[in-house]
Structures are given as structure tokens and as C-alpha cells.
Write a structure and sequence with these properties.
alpha+beta, globular
């Protein structure tokens, strides 16, 4: 797997609201740049999606890919189960209540492509994905 790209942001909302926004994967097209469509599959006991299929521009490539989720109260992680141009994808959102009505949200991402790409370009693409998703999540939660 590739090297981890990580960033975080402070959002003026509680972790439960933020996790609800993250769990609404079909709405990603409204707040995550590059996601053209998102379809949730299955519902777990906690009401969260079991998996989801996305079509979008991952910065370097356009792909259709499916991920499976592992949910907890304040964290979600996912891994690639199927992709056309992706060989591997690991991601994670972690919400930490700061005790003042705000939540720190950390997002980590590792991407492995089926085609050779210079590491610097791949990392730059990951950084764009992570930062734009965090900014979109902040706008969505605070809006």
C-alpha cells in the first residue's frame, strides 16, 4: 500500500451530526468535488451503509470503485473491494469532540493505482482529495 496522506479540520458541530453527514454517502456528490455519483449498498445494524460504489475523478484518474465500511460511533474506515484503475484504497475519518461545541475531524487516505504514477503526483492527488473533502464536510456541517 502507498504512503498515508492525512489532514484534519475543526468543525463547529458535534461528532454525531458529522458522522451522519459522512454516512449519507449518496449526498457526497453535493459536497465532495470529483464525486459524480455515489450509491450505498446494504444497511448495517447501526443504520450505516455496508458498502458504496462511487464514480468520480480521483485527481489523477477517473474511476468506478466500491468500498466496504467499518463504522463506530465516532470513526469510519473503508477499504477497496472493487476498482477499475485502483489497486488499493484505505481511508478513515475520525471525529474527536473538543468539549467546546466543536469537533476535530481527521481524514487519512492511502491510494494504490493499477497504473504506474510518480509518487509525488499520487501524493499531490491524495492531498487534494483529502483537503477538498474536509472543506466540503465543514461547509456541509456548518451550513
Amino acid at each position: 500500500m502507498a504512503e498515508l496522506t492525512q489532514s484534519s479540520i475543526v468543525i463547529e458541530a458535534d461528532a454525531a451530526l458529522i458522522m451522519d453527514i459522512i454516512a449519507d454517502v449518496e449526498a457526497y456528490v453535493e459536497w465532495i468535488p470529483g464525486i459524480d455519483s455515489a450509491t450505498a449498498h446494504g444497511v448495517l445494524d447501526n443504520g450505516r451503509p455496508e458498502s458504496a460504489t462511487f464514480v468520480g475523478n480521483l485527481g489523477l484518474i477517473k474511476d468506478t470503485y466500491t468500498v466496504a465500511y467499518d463504522w463506530s460511533e465516532s470513526e469510519v474506515s473503508w477499504h477497496l473491494t472493487e476498482g477499475e484503475m485502483l489497486d488499493g484504497l484505505l481511508g478513515n475519518y475520525t471525529c474527536t469532540d473538543r468539549g467546546d461545541g466543536t469537533t476535530e475531524v481527521s481524514y487519512s487516505l492511502e491510494v494504490d493505482l493499477a497504473i504506474p504514477v510518480v509518487g509525488m503526483l499520487r501524493r499531490r492527488g491524495e492531498k487534494v482529495i483529502v483537503d477538498s473533502a474536509l472543506r466540503g464536510l465543514k461547509r456541509r456541517a456548518e451550513g
